[in-house]
Amino acid sequence: MAGMDNLSYEMLLSIFSFLPVPDLVRCAAVSERWHEIVTGFTHLWKGKTYTTNRRPSESAETRAILRILPPLQHLIIELADEFKIEFAYPHMTLSVTDMGGIQEFPKLTCDFLLARGDIMSNILSSESSVDLAALRKLQILRVPPVNVADPPVFRAEDVIKSALQQCPNLRGLFICADHMSADYLDTLEGFHKLQTLEIVCPGLDKLAFLRHCSDSLELLRLCCTGLPTQEYTELRRLANLRRLGLHECQVMEGELRLVLEALGSLEALQLDRCGLVRDLSLLWRCATLRQLRLTLPPIAGAPLVLRDPRLQGQQQNPRMRMSVDADPVTLRLRNVNVNVEGMATALPLLQALGVDAGSLDQLAILRRCPQLSHLCLNFLVGTDEPQQSTVWVHIKLSSP
User: β-pairing, 72-79 with 110-115?
Assistant: First the structure.
């Protein structure tokens, strides 16, 4: 041991880097110097994996590892039939049989937490096993629906309220729930600190609460199928918004045009199956828009068969990746990912794939978007099995 103690930090770091996790933890118990190295140099842990089915209350090794573990980037807590700890540092997944079981854990520090199930009493509380002061992003999947016969202990709104109160440094929130009271959300404090907000909620009917984060919010994603179209004009309040994603939203062109005209900092826009938006000329006024991602209506014809199996000589282009069925007569598209340079190259290629003229006319308009440099298109093929028949086209319009 005397010889080992005389080794330099660099030598010890080199030796420790080859050790599996249990041995690394044992080294941390040898001396203060070794403990300082094991806990202070997080690169020793990167890429190291560890899996166990033994709970902390059942295993001294499990307890020791969790106590010595450096701060994590991502922590996932999910309900499962069997208990399991699995991590590839700096990410860790806890599969627990019940949320109450995590109370036996030592305090875990992470930047991002994804949790499923009842987290109010066990995670978002003063006795949490997660260091809530260090938490910067929280993702909740899925808040259980309200059952009239057997009302839940909490609602989705309560989860948001608790997160905003208990996590002082929270900057990003993702929540998925069947229903939320927009009026109740409008009474909550703490939205002003959020930079990222993602909501999946078919029962949400108002967006007025977004006024509380009008100065801070930089990224907003909404999947709210029941939201009235006029509510989207509330997005005009988000003066500093840089990225906006609307998924299956019933927004109309008039409301969206007003929003885009008001968002002078918008750099990225995603419109995913927003069927009421047909005229892309509304993008002309987005002087700062650099990235656009669209999921457009089905390509004419179902199932789609390539008009030119050679794609006009471009099938061998290394910038294009294609997966097709081995049919000797026709080529049936499954998932096609095409990377091309510029609209001039993209339009003939899309025409060869069978894209209808109306969609091509829409895309030609995008040439007039001054700052647009990257475009990602997802064309649904036909009406049957859209998840298995798609055409992804990534277009680089100009140099970044």
Answer: parallel
